[in-house]
Amino acid sequence: MRYDEKRQISRLIQSFVAKSNATQRRGRAGRVRSGLCFHLFSSVRHSKMAEHPLPEMLRLSLSDLALRIKIMKVNLGTSIQDVLSRALDPPSTINIQRAVAALVEVKALTETEEITPMGRLLSKLPTDVHLGKFLLVAALFKCLDPALTVAATLNSKSPFITPFGLEQEAERAKAKFASGSSDFLTIHNAFASFRRASANPGFIRKFCRDNYLSQQNLQQIEELRQQFLGYLIDSSFIKVDTTFSEEFRRARYSRQRNTRFVTVPPEYDANTDMEDKSMCLFNAALASGLYPKLLNVYSSESSNGQSMKMLSNNQAAFFHPSSVNFGRRPGDLGAGYLMYFTIVQSKRLYAWETAPVDDLALVLLCGDAEFKLISNTIDIDRKIKYRVAPKTNVALKHLREHLLENLSLRFKGKELSETQKVWETLAIKVLGRVKSIET
């Protein structure tokens, strides 16, 4: 797996191992007793192999590393590029610049590479910056429980399994958890069902077997959920009382055989049943975190609503077979844009996890928006355009300004004034009820 900074995608590249990898594998054959190791390549091929594998710094995304450099205040230069250029195998200048630009895009860094209050919080979360931002916003929107599940799943293995020869049965079982044409909500629904089934330990194995779920992976997801929640508490972004802290500690470090689930404080998760309002807020928080990971849906006659392209580079993309949207026309999902987390280049450019994005979430939370009162349009990063009524334009402009100001204050750990709380409540109500705007 290699990350393409220019196209912001991961690429599955078939390649031979390095000589050092082959030597290591040969050593494993004799670790316990004398053994044999068979390499399925010729001696000529072996002579042409690289001595060592490509360093991670040269094949994975640099965004997380760049953020760690800023938070550690490494005194090896005045910029992230100065620091990384001193590495034994330094990345290319252009890849470093693209990684920094990605951090600026999610508001973790300023244009001058100064770390922001949100960037400091993200540096304390052991996850992708996009998922970290998603968790922070979800906590403020009171939908943290499903956000923890989704973030944990995207950082571990999928809970869904597909046994050989039972592909159709597994697909039908997964479809039962599908909701809102969203792979992310499907993940949440599957985990929530597993959590309810765990109330009866004798039933849990049958439940997982019947629904083609991996009990081991689901237990690992709960462990990651607890880790993320612990980091949010330790960073003081989430404030809990002593009673909750003690219960959380007992559950997290319990050695019981059965999984102990942690309940998110109600102050940060008011709607555990994922009704329509909380589903909209969840999607809004997810869009805020994943942006600009968007797919633009074509509605031209030639494509018949079946095509979509990446917002960042206009490259055609397709639903991965594992997605609940596979086999569906993008134009039938009821949205002009879809968000994704993983996109991988193999035979095609496949988006693994996708979901529709509400127009209002993009206007209020994403990118740099320009409200043009003369033309009655809203431009987001000069890539997304909406045409709205004059009064709607003005109202959305003020609502966005107040919402982003309040989020900034929350990230700084400051309390909101009564007026600011009114604006926050209004913004959350609007995001929870309105999905699209007039175009």
From TrEMBL:
Designated name of the protein: p-loop containing nucleoside triphosphate hydrolase protein
Lineage top rank: taxon: Eukaryota
Phylogenetic placement of the source organism: Eukaryota, Fungi, Dikarya, Basidiomycota, Agaricomycotina
Keyword Zinc set for record: no
Domain Helicase-associated residues, every copy: 98-188
Transmembrane segments: none
Nucleotide-binding in keyword set: yes
Family matches, as SUPFAM superfamilies: P-loop containing nucleoside triphosphate hydrolases
Keywords, sorted A to Z: ATP-binding, Helicase, Hydrolase, Nucleotide-binding
Molecular-function GO term, any one: RNA binding
Gene3D superfamilies found in the cross-reference section: 1.20.120.1080, P-loop containing nucleotide triphosphate hydrolases
Coiled coil spans: none
